[in-house]
Amino acid sequence: MIRINQYEKTKNCFMGEINGYGYAFVPGSKKGVVLLDMKTKLILDDLSNFKNKKDDLRVKLLLENGLLQPNDTLPLRPILNKDKIKGMSTWLHIANCCNLRCPYCYIANKGKGFMSLSVAKSYLDKLEQTVRYHQLDLITIRLAGGEPTLHKKMIRFLAEETQKRFIKKGIRVQLILLTNGTLIDLELIKLIHDHSMRVCFSLDGLGEWHNKTRFFKNGMGSFDQVIKNLNLCLNNNIQPTILTTITDKNVLGVPALSRFLIDKNLSFRYGLYRDNIGGYKACESFIRKVSEVLNDCYDYYINAIRNHRTKTRHQFCEIHLDRKAHLRSCNIGYSGVTVDHTGKVFLCQARMDKKPIGNIKDKTTLLQMAWSQNTFPELCMKDVFDYEDCNHCQWSLICAGGCPVTNFGAHGSAVSSSPYCKLFKQMIPRLIEIKALQLIETYSKI
Amino acid sequence: MNDKKTMANKEIMVFSEAEAIKAGKMSDFTYECECSDCPCPDGDCCTDY
Q1: Sorting pLDDT into bands at 50, 70 and 90, what band is B4?
Q2: Chain B: nearest CA to A186, how far in angstroms?
Q3: Strand partners for A346
Q4: What is the complex's ipTM, to 2 decimals?
Q5: Which of A49, A175, A339, A442 could link B20 by a cystine bridge, Cβ 3.0 to 4.6 Å?
């Protein structure tokens, strides 16, 4: 017989109801979102609703799923442990030039220049040394720039070399092509297929909404070209992830874009322009506008899931609902670096205007360079529980404080809460609701 | 949805995302973008509790 007064709801447990089900979610829990019948939810809401022996099983299941815990359980404090890192990622800046002139691009010192074969070989040597020294078994390489598809020969070289140097030796490699989508052709599509690359297209709106910020150097918008190539990918069984940067210029075009992406079953990530709110004076009004278009998007998304019209997956900014405890919103200074076209190593692709943290010709490994970085010294050995505004937040393990570069721009410190914190707090419950609905769809098929 | 609603009201039902993934009915959404979080395979292999 269970004595209910021995238990309490797990700290930070969030609950809601949708489609006649209850659901609960504990940030950072490996269980993820948990669906509940309504009576079980009532017990979790208020333990005095526990009535009789029949409820024993409910309580047992709530305990198994980490939603209830014995009274006075000490909170777990996850900490990062560098010795346990098994994988690392690189932003590999293979082209320093681009055929578009997006005004919000955060890549500093863009101009001419491609990564040479000799730099690429040295990078791979350095990566091999890093993998060996730290005994890594997974590497992720983002082929980026500038526009990486301006340097197709390099994409092919890296794909073939990583196969020889890593994959054949049992090291897993994930290549991700970050492209503006204007230069995709059948030859590249074959290469993407042959090497199981993932592809991300930038699309900021439909028609003129996209063209406002993503245009060629002659001023012509790139939308038609991007859509043509997006269809080329889809017709050849490549499903790109769509990356959208929301700025003041395209925010009102987001509702139409959301409908297009959801109806087309395209996974999409909405991000916010890092310096959109320079000085952050206009932050409140921008947040209001974004909040409206996101709520519109999520209403439409929920209807599409209910009507079995979409299996789209979506991410908003640095909000992670993936059954992991996120102590940092990204892996800069920990398990990720940026390598530019000349071989200089940087903390982050958005900080290539700062002093490099190393060079691929240096003796130290890429991870050692990341750990000894001095671009954001305050980031060393700190995680979200050290951020004053975040350490007591219910959602700290979900957004981990947001992008350190954005935070630095807003507050002069990378280890502070996001200037978009208020928006994140509004949207996290909606994103959990969407996950619960997706889980209901899954449950109905079991 | 009415059937499901009835079912939810009648049954003892506690069903997690982890179970759905284990049953092969759902996958963890690993999204790609310009930034990367911890790329370790099981997510928290570099985290201690």
Answers
A1: very low
A2: 22
A3: A338
A4: 0.86
A5: A442
